[in-house]
Structures are given as structure tokens and as C-alpha cells.
Amino acid sequence: MQDRFQREINYLRISITDRCNLRCVYCMPPEGVKLVEHEDILRLEEIETIVRAAAAVGIRKLRLTGGEPLIRKGIVRLVRKLSAVPGIDDLALTTNGILLARYLKSLEEAGLNRVNISLDTLRPERFKEITRGGNLTDVWQGIKAALASSLHPVKLNTVIIRGSNDDEILDFARLTMEFPLHVRFIELMPIGTCNAWAEEKRVPYYEIKEQIEKELGSLVAYEEVPGGGPAKYYRLPGALGTIGFITAMSNHFCNHCNRIRLTAQGQIRPCLHSEWEIDLKGPLRQGAREEELQALISQAIQGKPRRHSMDSEGWQDQRRSMFQIGG
Ligand SMILES: Nc1nc2c(ncn2[C@@H]2O[C@H](COP(=O)(O)OP(=O)(O)OP(=O)(O)O)[C@@H](O)[C@H]2O)c(=O)[nH]1
Ligand SMILES: C[S@@+](CC[C@H](N)C(=O)[O-])C[C@H]1O[C@@H](n2cnc3c(N)ncnc32)[C@H](O)[C@@H]1O
Ligand code: SF4
Ligand code: SF4
Question: Where is this region: Disordered (predicted)?
């Protein structure tokens, strides 16, 4: 379905839990977050019902995210249900990779198509610091398992933070020479615990690109990486994988926005940045029929703002952060 700015909205990102087994310094506070009552989180069957309604109004791609989607009980069952919904032709997952090796085979068998793995450093000690306790080996096992599976293309999400991991840009770029990985450098957005310092520590994509080109050779634009997201891809000479840039701040991609979100608590959030949401959980639990859900989702699509204004306003939403909305 088109929104009022003639953008085709066909991608639903679903936060299936607001909990996480890591505490990345830019995303969550060290103590974690106030736990939402179990009752307030959408049940798997409710997610399925919403997806059926969304597919009926033109959603074709789904992404399960969070929080950490792999800690949600029943994740494999959910993937099996959603992959069977008529109209859905791409079902992907964004994960921190800690539990990926454990679940990969079952997810693949259940119908998952692709996986994006978040990884901000290749150094074990630094990984512990950035994630406040995570084990890098677990993530590497997940990445290797994904590469050995049918879930291609395998993409990495790497947020570069000045003074923290900006000395690893070339190491990440070199990974694409060795493995068929799609390494995407993401500009830090003022969302989560980094709200106050994101601007100061953000490394704009052109700095990263310049450094890679200076040291490793020209980046040639590459448009063949399947997906529904905003990354722009390039390839180093002779590389097996690609290098992508997600330029959320220095060159926003809202003009080509194709997505809406479903929060873990059951609201449709038409834009990552806008606080405006439409509740589906309430109507669903009061017995709304699928047509009513379709009407609410259509309303959300029609109400999508033209673009975010994180550059001028930062993050004002006191209720929700990235992991509740589905980053
Ligand atoms: N500003 C903005 N950033 C987004 C949006 N969606 C995703 N991002 C950023 O892009 C990152 C990567 O998103 P992923 O979950 O890997 O999904 P994707 O890149 O859309 O997925 P594919 O291209 O389909 O593989 C997220 O972690 C966010 O930082 C969005 O709507 N707006
Ligand atoms: C919120 S996490 C949820 C899924 C899963 N836990 C993971 O880390 O992949 C999704 C992505 O959002 C990114 N992210 C979180 N906060 C961000 C911010 N302030 N700016 C840019 N990306 C951010 C993370 O790096 C991760 O790649
Ligand atoms: S970025 Fe992902 S892994 Fe890290 S704390 Fe946020 S939700 Fe958890
Ligand atoms: S910030 Fe909002 S309008 Fe821009 S790409 Fe993300 S969801 Fe779309």
C-alpha cells in the first residue's frame, strides 16, 4: 500500500521482545530495563493474526527483532507460523548472534529466509566492554553457522563509535575479502543510552568510506544484495562480500521509506522516530475482526511522517527506546 507521500510500504519490523541477553552501552542501561508484564507483550498467536492482517494490506517482508529475538520462547514456532502466511515472501531476523548457532538449523527448517547479525568489534575484550559481558566466540559461531546455511545473504550490522571501535573499520572491511559477508556500517542515532552523546561520537559514513578507499582500494557500487533495508552497498576489488552504509543521520533515507513497525507491546509504530502509535493489542483482545485490524494498519501507513527529525530534535520519546520498537 502507498502512503500519502507515494512510498510503497511493504515491510513490517516486529519487536518480539523488549528483553535482551546483552547490554550494549549505546542501547541499554547496565541494569537492564524495567520489565514489562508478560501479559502486556503480544502472544505468538496475536503476532500471527496481526501479520495476516498486514499481509492483506500489502506487507510482503517481515523482520523479527527486539530486544533479542532469540531469547523469546517459541521463536521457532513463530517463524514456522509466519513463513506460512500467504503473501509474505521474505522473513528475516536481526540478532546479536549469541544464541544463533544453537537455533539456526531449526529456524532454517521453520522457514526463515535471512539473518542479520549485529557485531561492533572483532576483539574479545572490547566485545565484553561494549556489550557489558558478551562472549565474542558465541557470535562467531553464529556467523559461521549462518554462512554454512542457506540463509544468505548474511549481513553484519556494525555501529561505529568514535573513540571506541573506530580503529576497527579496516578490519571489518577486510572481512569482506575473506568471507561472503555484507558488512554494514551504521551511523549512531540518538536513541537509547547514547542519546546524550550520539552526536559527538557518531562517525559519518563518508569518513568511513574515505578511510576504506584510502587503505584498501576503490569501492564500486553494488546493487545486487537482496533485502528491504536502506543500506547502500559497495564492493572492494576481488571481495567475496560487500560493504554497506546505513546513513540514518548524515543522509537520511526517509524518502524511500518502505516500513512500519510493531512494538513488543502491540502498537503499530508508523515511524521509528515519531511517538505516534496505533494500538492493536487492545482491539485484538476485545475481539476485533481481521478487517478492523487491516483498517488500523492502513491508517498507520497513511499517517506516516515524511521523515525523521532526529538531527534537530534528538529523541524525545520517554516511553520507548530502540529495543522496544524494534531497531
Ligand atoms: N533511521 C532509520 N534507521 C533504520 C530503520 N530501520 C532500520 N534502521 C537502521 O538500520 C539498521 C539495520 O537494520 P536491520 O534490522 O539489519 O534491517 P535492514 O537493513 O532493514 O534489512 P535488510 O536490508 O532487509 O537486510 C538498524 O539497526 C537501524 O540502525 C528506519 O526505519 N529508520
Ligand atoms: C536494537 S537491536 C535489536 C536486535 C538484536 N538485539 C541485535 O542487536 O541485533 C538492532 C540493531 O539496532 C542497532 N542499534 C541500537 N541502537 C542504535 C542506535 N542508537 N543507533 C544506531 N543503531 C542502533 C544495533 O546495533 C543492532 O544492530
Ligand atoms: S543492540 Fe541489540 S543486543 Fe545490544 S542491547 Fe540493544 S537489543 Fe540488546
Ligand atoms: S526514520 Fe521514519 S520515515 Fe525515516 S526511514 Fe525510518 S521509519 Fe521511515
Answer: 303-327
Asked if residues 274 and 310 have their Cβ atoms less than 8 Å apart, the reply is no
83 is in an annotated binding site: no
| Residue 49 grid coordinates | 493474526
| 16 CB within 6 A, ligand 2 | no
Q: What would the pLDDT profile of 199-234 be if each residue is shown by its tens digit?
A: 999 999 999 999 999 999 999 999 989 998 899 999
Residue-wise pLDDT for 234-245, tens only, equals 999 999 999 999
Quickly count: other Cβ atoms within 10 Å of residue 262's Cβ. 28
Q: 94 forms bridges with which residues in the sheet?
A: 116
Residues with CB under 6 A from ligand 4: 252-254, 257, 259, 271-273, 307-308
What length is written for the chain?
A: 327
- For a pocket test of ligand 2, which of 143, 322, 323, 324 has the largest count of ligand atoms closer than 8 A to its C-beta? 322
Q: What is the largest CA-CA distance in the chain?
A: 60
Rounded to the nearest whole angstrom, what is the distance from the C-alpha of residue 132 to the centroid of ligand 2? 15
Domains and CATH numbers, the chain: 11-325 (3.20.20.70)
Nearest CA to ligand 3 atom 7: 67
All three cell numbers of 269: 509504530
